[in-house]
Amino acid sequence: MTKTLDEKTASTDRIAFQGEAGSFSSEAARRLMGEDVDLVACETFEKMFSAVEDGACDYCLAPIENSLYGSVFQNYDLLLKHNLSIKGETSLRIVHNLIAPPGVSVESIRRVYSHPVALGQCLRFLANNPQMQSVAAYDTAGSVKMIMESREPGAAAIASSGAAQVYSAQILVPEIEDDRQNYTRFLLLCRSDRNPEPLEGADKTSIVFSLENRTGSLYRAMAVLALRDIDLTKIESRPLIGRPWEYCFYVDFIGNINEPRVRNALGHLGEFATNVKVLGCYRRANK
């Protein structure tokens, strides 16, 4: 069931996500937490993070990177701004469909609404159908909701099959994405005080730190992992607000913070890095 922030629920856990019911984020939330969850739709990522930090929701589900488009930079910045901790992750294959109200034919479609990223992932289909004009919207599922409410003649949307089901729309053309190897990684986040210890079986850790701008500092930071045979899976740099040309570094690696080699690596890093923060220790997503 999908609710708004203002609606109360008797359920223990509420999961905030950005977008509308039927979005890929809501599908990822159910994959992680099961079908019987209370999903709370938020207009923006900022509102989604704030809902958890303020206690209105127990968790939020944040897309953090896409296998084709790369990192979702806004959510990396929000991880530093808000005091949330990573509880888990999942990877979802993104399947785009051309969706319209029941009874509408493919030949009648003249405008296709969707999020700009979704439109960009279906360029081949749109190029092969030049009569269809792409129109950017704020959300994939929200585009389906919009065309179902407006019944605009000649309008369709690109979104998930779940969105078509939620809004009683029809899929005109399935799987129109350019590349089938299109996956988005999502992080399940909660307040840090609700995540004091890693879950059993946690085998992945995410951290963020900053370094003094001097020769070899990043090399030294990476060496604390390499010298202990810790497998680095991702590194991302982001500008430090208010400090031009200085950066913080987000790092994911395989390992549990309770392992001696990981504790030693973090201790070594803390000797020369500044603001080292463990964002979470959790089970990595199944491939």
Quick overview:
It contains nine helices and 16 strands.
Describe this structure in words.
It is a single chain. This protein is α/β, with parallel strands linked by helices. It folds into three domains: 2-92 and 183-194, D-Maltodextrin-Binding Protein, domain 2, CATH 3.40.190; 97-173, Periplasmic binding protein-like II (D-Maltodextrin-Binding Protein, domain 2); 204-282, Alpha-Beta Plaits. It contains nine helices and 16 strands. The protein has helices spanning 24-33, 45-53, 73-81, 116-120, 123-128, 140-150, 161-166, 217-226, 260-270; strands at 2-3, 14-18, 38-42, 59-66, 70-71, 84-93, 97-100, 111-114, 133-136, 155-159, 170-173, 183-191, 204-210, 232-239, 247-254, 274-282. Strands 1, 2, 3, 4, 5, 6 and 12 form a seven-stranded mixed beta sheet that branches. It has a five-stranded mixed beta sheet with strand order 9-8-10-7-11. Helix 8 runs antiparallel to helix 9. The longest helix has 11 residues, at 140-150. The protein is elongated and about 65 Å long. Residues 4-11 have low confidence and may be disordered.
Runs in which pLDDT lies below 50 for 5 or more consecutive residues are: 4-11
> Beta-strand level of the residues, as a percent range?
25-35%
Q: Class of the largest domain, according to the CATH hierarchy?
A: Alpha Beta
* Domain tally: 3
Helix content: 25-40%
